[in-house]
## 1
Amino acid sequence: MAAAARPGPEELALLEKLLGLPKGNKYGVQGERKVPVLQTNNGPGLTGLITIAAHLVKQARKDQLLGSTAEEKAVVQQWLEYRVTQVDGCSSKEDTRIILKNLNIHLEDKVYLAGNIFTLADVLMYYGLHHVMAWPLFSALVVTTGTAAAAERCASHLSLCRQEGAFPGW
């Protein structure tokens, strides 16, 4: 399996579009790991996928995407961290199997990652898994790793997110 796609300017531009923000932000990457950067007009640039995404959500005045209660906010943050630490680092079939298994377990009794509300965690998880789900050998991965149920549940979750309009351009 090819190395996981790194979050970058394209992903942030899609999020910007989803949020209804006007185009014009300047995104880049920095360092060997190609960490996303947002060049701001007022002060220093913002660095990191979660930081920039949360900034865009607040700029769009859609704070509900970050969760409403303290618990929802914590769960959203948990899955945003999972996205950056686990999904973005996925580089093998075994890594993918573990990620799908973890998502399957979590989504067994939930519609979205934070329960019954659509959040930024759902959007960024889709963006992070899109390359895996679109991967031509995905069905072979399912067969060889025994993750059919996990893959089906994740695909169902991603389909729900698509219905929420999370994926303009995909």
## 2
Amino acid sequence: MAPPPLLAAACLACTLAMFGTGLSDLRQMLATKSVENIQFLPFLTTDVNNLSWLGYGCLKQDWTLIAVNTVGAALQTLYILAYLCYTPAKRPVLLRSLLLLAVLAAGYGYFTLLIADPRTRLARLGLFCSVFTISMYLSPLADLAKIVRTKSTRCLSFPLTVATFLASTSWTLYGLQLRDPYITVPNVPGIVTSVVRFWLFWRYPPGQDKPYRPLPA
């Protein structure tokens, strides 16, 4: 069953808005010519996630998935290149990037050469994408626990939380419409963690005395 065009457009708009929050980091790197207070790992893991879902979308011939993750992968690759340009520790960053390429090449070989049946290939790639996305949504839980201990939300980004909530909700509805659990299930944790963040913003309003560094979604 094809999803309604409005729902597909909502997935596209909300997800691109979520990816676009990284533009503030890009502007900071370009303005200061440094990577101070900017984390590299979220760019790398999000790029892997986008490329994996892009492969799933191509196998499924889902143009919404293809469009969203093509733009997302391009943005994350741009952030990685900017980080590599301005970081003084180029060697570890380059090694991590090469490791990413090696993992992607190995994954491509596994899914295209070792799995001949298209339906099995789609199911296994969907399972990988789902597990990876869930792990990304759950990874900031330690930071949320720290916020409760410190009673401060200065390190959280409210616009990013809103964008994550809307994107996760849109994709959950999209997956339900397609009856695709590989799309539906991994986005539920995104809704849950976003609701938890909304509660933290309400419980501990962000202070104005210190600048904050947004946490990755």
